[in-house]
Amino acid sequence: MTLANRKQPRSSQRSRRKIRSALSACSAVAFAVAIVAGLAAACKPPAPRGAPPPRLGFSSAAFEKQRDLEQRFRSSVSAEELGKFHAMVTREPHMAGTDGSRDVAESIRGALAAAGLNVEVIEYQAYLSFPTTVAVDIVAPIAQRLRVTEPASAIDRDTQNPRLGPGFVAYSASGDVTAPVVYVNYGLPDDYAQLAARNVDVRGKLVIARYGHSHRAVKLHTAEHAGAAGILIYI
Questions:
Q1: Longest Cα–Cα distance in the chain
Q2: Residue 143 sits in the same domain as residue 209
Q3: How far apart are CA 150 and CA 145, in angstroms?
Q4: Bond before 141 cis per omega within 30 degrees
Q5: Do 140 and 229 have their domain in common?
Q6: Are 165 and 103 part of one and the same domain?
Q7: pLDDT of 203 above 90
Q8: 101 and 140 housed in the same domain
Q9: Is 169 left (phi over 0), alpha (psi -120 to 50) or beta?
Q10: Residues 173 and 92 in one domain
């Protein structure tokens, strides 16, 4: 058996010491650089007062250009002119498919053309829903016919327009319903759940709901799903 116990040459040991020394020196240099960088950051003068804060997605020059563009756009918009345009398109009732609707389309076309735009008016053939008759009556304990048109107001001349029609929900089914009335608040699912928790059954009843908090179609769908025979929506 031969036991080999070789010693590393002295030159190799000296090289390792040199490497260790070199690594130590590099570490010291890196540490010194980190200290200098930290001191430089700490000694960096603060931004001058009044300087705009940096804007996400914009360089300073690009932000100033964008802000100038937006300011010019806002300056070109006149609230007074917008009010005039709104008054023009709302001066008469304009239910879809009526002459009033055509007048509004022509008014908008003229305004856009005057602004320098090329405008094309396209006509569509569509099925629209118009009521033949709308009537609501109390039959008990007293008989009374209720109005289905908006009452005129002295402070709102538009309510006095004779071309205003009765309130109705387009595409709702035709029918004649006589049934007890149940108040369902806004006619939303939670309202029916509250009634069910109090053992109030709306099946086969005529429910009356307040306007708002959802689209009219939601109120109709919810009433139908609950089994109601009909629904009245009031403001």
A1: 126
A2: yes
A3: 15
A4: yes
A5: yes
A6: no
A7: yes
A8: no
A9: beta
A10: no
- At which residue do the structure tokens 């109030």 appear? 200
CATH number at residue 194: 3.50.30.30
Structure tokens that stand for 129 in this block: 């829903």
- Which residues are within 8 A (CB) of 122 and not within 5 positions of it... i.e. 6 or more apart? none
| Tokens found for residue 174 | 């035709």
Alpha carbon distance 24, 19 (integer Å): 8
User: Looking at residue 10, what is its pLDDT?
Assistant: 47
Vertex 203 angle, CA 197 and 209, to 5°: 75
| Average pLDDT over all residues of the chain | 81
Three-class secondary structure of residue 228 per DSSP: coil
- Could you tell me the residue range of the domain that residue 218 belongs to? 136-234
- In angstroms, the CA 130 to CA 168 distance is 9
Q: What is the pLDDT of residues 65-117, one digit of tens each?
A: 999 999 998 888 888 988 999 998 988 999 988 999 999 999 999 999 998 99
- Spatial separation of the C-alpha atoms in residues 109 and 122, rounded to whole Å: 11
Say whether pTM exceeds 0.90. no
CA 60 → CA 11, 67, 73, distances in Å? 61, 11, 20
- 182 in Cβ contact with 173 (< 8 Å): no
| Helix (H), strand (E), coil (C) string for 129-173 | CCCCCCCEEECCCCCEEECCCCCCECCEHHHHCCCCCCCCCCCCC
Kindly state whether residue 126 falls inside one of the protein's structural domains.
no
Domain count along the chain = 2
Give how far Cα 154 sits from Cα of 87, 160, 161, 206, Å.
Answer: 19, 8, 12, 33
